[in-house]
Amino acid sequence: MYKIQFIGVGSAFTTREYYQSNALVIAPSGKKLLIDCGTHAQFALEELGINNSNLGKEIDGVYISHLHADHIGSLEWLALVTYFNPAFPRPKLFGIQSLMSDLWNKSLRGGLETLEGKIANLTDYFECHPVRINNSFVWENIRFTPVQTVHVVSGMQIQHSYGLMIQEIGSDHRVFLTTDTQFAPYQMRKFYDQADLILHDCETAPFKSGVHAHYDDLNGLPEKTKAKMWLYHYQPKPPQDSIKDGFLGFVKKAQILVIEKKETESGNKPAEAQAA
Q1: What is the pLDDT of residue 268?
Q2: What would the CATH number be for the domain defined by 2-275?
């Protein structure tokens, strides 16, 4: 059994009532892996009792899905707070190999490269674990398999995000976390079908941005898919009745999902997410 806690559930432009959509995976050991570390993460974590004084003891590592600010905006804070406290180990950093290079060269280098007496690089701040495409990584007996999604298409360039299929070793139950993705039912179908629980980004504005799955589109998915889907990354005060429409609901800020096995009449053991 492990837990997933959303430290924020809002869009990139949300308010402190929701915070941006980042999450903690909490292992049975109590160790915590942060899934993305956006601009609001410092303040969202502080509301949960994680701050500069205990950050390096509370956060064992971080996974980065892509380079938008609502997913990496507090990484410089995390790097510097843990670097300058000798009692803190370097946090583990997981991400797709090519993304690691861009994370440093296009995002973090300007603020972190220059230290007193030395020129730093990413490994001065983090214990780096680059992940190759189509591979996975294991943290605290939990396997994380990155799932490439299409987030933004700009001319000839595609900005991918890398969602996660999460599975405890020794268990056949899977949680699919999309991170950021366009509505792509054909691309996502096999992951929807494989997962026992789906955590899906979902915009709820009256207009569609095209870079996230919109509620109206997700609402057209098969009922069996919606019945195992929580929604996050939504705009403030969503007007939709997600439970009436067949979803598990909108995840609330700081909500904890307990991922555990549950016997069914058929003998299968689907992953069950209970709000704690």
Answers
A1: 40
A2: 3.60.15.10
Side-chain half-sphere of 204: how many Cα atoms within 13 Å?
Answer: 20
CA 255 – CA 213 distance, rounded (Å):
22
In angstroms, rounded to a whole number, what is the distance separating the alpha carbons of residues 83 and 1? 32
150 pLDDT tier (thresholds 50, 70, 90): confident
3-state secondary structure the chain: CEEEEECCCECCCCCCCCCECCEEEECCCCCEEEECCCCCHHHHHHHCCCCCCCHHHHEEEEECCCCCHHHHCCHHHHHHHHHCCCCCCCCEEEEEHHHHHHHHHHHHHHHHCEECCEECCHHHHCEEEEECCCCCEEECCEEEEEEEEEEEEECCEEEEEEEEEEEECCCCCCEEECCCCCCCHHHHHHHHHHCCEEEEECECCCCCCCCCCEHHHHCCCCHHHHCCEEEECECCCCCCCCCCCCCCEECCCCCEEEEEECCCCCCCCCEEEEEC
Question: Looking at the predicted structure, is the pLDDT value of residue 211 above 90?
Answer: no
What are the sequence ranges of the domains in the chain? 2-275
| 23, β-bridge pairs | 6, 35
At 2, give phi and psi (nearest 5°): -135, 175
Percent of the chain with pLDDT over 70: 94
**Global confidence as pTM:** 0.93
Query: What's the whole-number mean pLDDT along residues 104-109?
Result: 96
